[in-house]
Design brief:
Layout: E1 3-5, E2 11-13, E3 15-18, H1 26-41, E4 46-48, H2 57-67, E5 75-80, H3 85-89, H4 92-96, E6 103-104, E7 109-110, H5 113-127, E8 132-138, H6 149-165, E9 169-175, H7 192-203, E10 209-215, H8 234-240, E11 244-248, H9 256-267, H10 290-305, H11 323-332, E12 339-343, H12 348-359, H13 364-377
Parallel strand pairs: 3-4, 3-12, 4-5, 5-8, 8-9, 9-10, 10-11, 11-12
Antiparallel strand pairs: 1-2, 6-7
Helix pairs in contact: 1-2, 5-6, 6-7, 9-10, 11-12
Length: 381
Amino acid sequence: MLYNNLFDGKKISNFGFGLYKGEETNLKDKEILKSIFYGLKRGINVIDTAQKYRNGRSERLIRKVLKKNKRETLVILSKVGLLPNYVKKKKILKKLFVKKSNCLIEMDFCIDPKFINWSVENSLKLMNTDYIDFYLLHNPEIALLLKDGHNKIIDALYVLEKKRKEKKILYYGVATWNGCRRFSKNNKQLNVEKILKTLKNKVGEDHGFRCIEAPISIGMPDILSFKTSKNFNFEKFLIKNKINFFSSASLYEGKLEQLVELNKIFNSTSIKKDLSNETKKANVSFPQSENSLRRLFILLENFRKNNINLANIKLNYPKNTNIFGININFLRCIPFITSSLIGGMEEKNFINSNLKQFSNKLKHVNSIKIWSIWKKIKVNL
């Protein structure tokens, strides 16, 4: 197991468990727990969950994990903002008298300070822990659809700052999905530079905003092009402000094989020859939103222009690596990733395979090759 350091010096495994997947059943709980215990014994010490994940069951699992592991050995992340069904069923928002102007119920989203405050206490209770390492606003870019959205985000972070002062969370930040996948001129972009500046003006330099979680993979390289302004450099921003970065959807939500198929089909459009498959359904998948689809098409065009065939990328180590291993090696070349969060590691062979890939020593020639590909596929994203 290889480790990185958080900015406070604590060692953290270079990949960890993401608990967003799985049915809401006792059987699935047991399956996930068995996997977590297996991984922890092999050195993984990061667990990423959220209030929304598996309708609260993923947070409840932490309670059982902590019964068999010392709290200080683990790094636990959780999130608030996206509403689980149990919160809606129990009418928590109504009981807390949250303002409707702080919610987008049709998107299962609430950023009301009263709800944020309640959620921290609820997460601590469900996990049966005295503190949470990182507590993040879940998809806070949704708040930008509301009136005065930027200040609503600041008000929510201020609640988390107060919780930090109470030592109920160590740090806080944002876990974004689309916020860093929008251009700087788009008012729905999550401008982390502006957010941090406003927060510092409100609470001072001794703040707890020390984490950003965002997607990155071969299928979503957008963060490598993320800019809030012309001269903005994301890596320098993270280092300067001592912000830890966790990659989400690190294996493209398990859809890398479908991306390989899309890559093959899209590349074939420049060849005057039919593909051989006439009977089987193509193994492909597409995102739902217009902007995500647009970005996928740009990515596929970048693959085609540069004659990149994901199925044929060869690295000297390890031999015969599949697309998941290739993707992991691509992540390993990004210096600002503190830890990559992996969902769906319910089987021992998945954990062992990831351990092998995340622990290998990349040869310099491979790093150069990988970065040359990153530069080509992130253009215009």
